[in-house]
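ok here's the first one, seq then struct tokens
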Amino acid sequence: MTAVHTGGSGMIPRQVPLDGQAPAAPAGTGQAPSGTVAFVLQGGGSLCAAQVGALRALTEAGITPDLVVGSSAGALNGAAFAADPGIEGLDRLEALWLGLRRRNVAPIAPSTLIRAALGRGEAAVSSAALRRLLRDGIGVARLEDAAVPVHVVTTDIDTGAAVVLSRGDAVPALLASSAFPGLYPPVRIGERRLIDGGVSADTPVLQAEALGATTIYVLPSAVTEQTGHHAHAALMAAYRAVGQILVERERRDLAAVHGSVLRLPAATTEVVSLVDFRDTPHLVRAGYSLTRDWLARQPAAMA
């Protein structure tokens, strides 16, 4: 049985502008504060449900971040957690996940699909349902109003560069970070058209370091297990190819970080589609138990 990574897709970022400004100085230059802890949340659609359990285990262990950085669905979790970084906030986030269905994020409309197929539309799915979900469920109107500084990673569709949003309206920023190419339309913020953060930085550890992090906890999405069934062989082959690209890019990015990186264990699932929420209860539980057990074996992480 093989684990296949399925979060995000795309190219290595060429630059890391913060709100359109010049990149921040990396850790180790003397300009970043010491002992700055970041939670970095990987993208991965419905597979990011495991991060809710991981956040609960970290919170119960007394591990708190100075900043939160996320891509795609990881940015949604990161923003909701940063808005209310306690057990009650996590209870609300978990309840939100447990109530999710595909229609809540990607309702199918034949007219939209036809326009996309004919080249007359930019996306197969309207982002209206996802916008309503974000408006009602995130808990913060503007990114800078979160209790913990939160940074949302997106991708400039014209350049492929990672763009980190740290201020401004939360809903458009999170819509942009989740705008998977072809599924959702790009989101215009300022002069840029932005899409899914996973295209440029699915696991945004370099972005976290540029923001001053010296200790980084990586909260991965779940990974899909190939069970040997052949009904979705072509789809699994595509996921496997994308997963290999992502794993190699993450390996290079982790190796480039100057500070300490602690990567939490990833839950596994048989779910393939990133808008399939049938395994959410299992993923939340698995994220919690895996992280709790990992912390028990990692005394250095508790320091």
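and now the second one, same deal
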Amino acid sequence: MTSKPDAAQRMSDLRRLRRVRDRIDREYAQPLDVEALARDAHISAGHLSRQFRLAYGESVYSYLMTRRIERAMALLRIGELSVTEVCFAVGCSSLGTFSTRFTELVGMPPSAYKREAEEETAGMPACVAKQVTRPIRNREAPAASRKLS
């Protein structure tokens, strides 16, 4: 029989999870995996995965990919890099996986997003463009193509 963790243990676990989340936010372009994140947090990969999902409502991998896609969207709006260059700049090692996840979150392939974003966000302050084009979290984009504005 296991006992429920006390308040001090729960706070310690939450601090650990915040450090993992903050590391993902900072180092999203680096090669990160659950095992390495868990090892650095001094917990098992399974425990990290379960606790992260309980605290943030999504898996570690999903959170990492969302960060990468958000950054990719910003780079594609600027329009100076190709889709392939953006893929590698945000830490993805597979263009196919990047394009698939991008399409799931944004509702259109990165190449289509780049074309539309350049037109629809022209003249818009970057902080506003970031907010209105933020990817959908914790659910997939609707099947129909999503408008940026």
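notes on #2: The radius of gyration is 17 Å. The chain has a mean pLDDT of 85.
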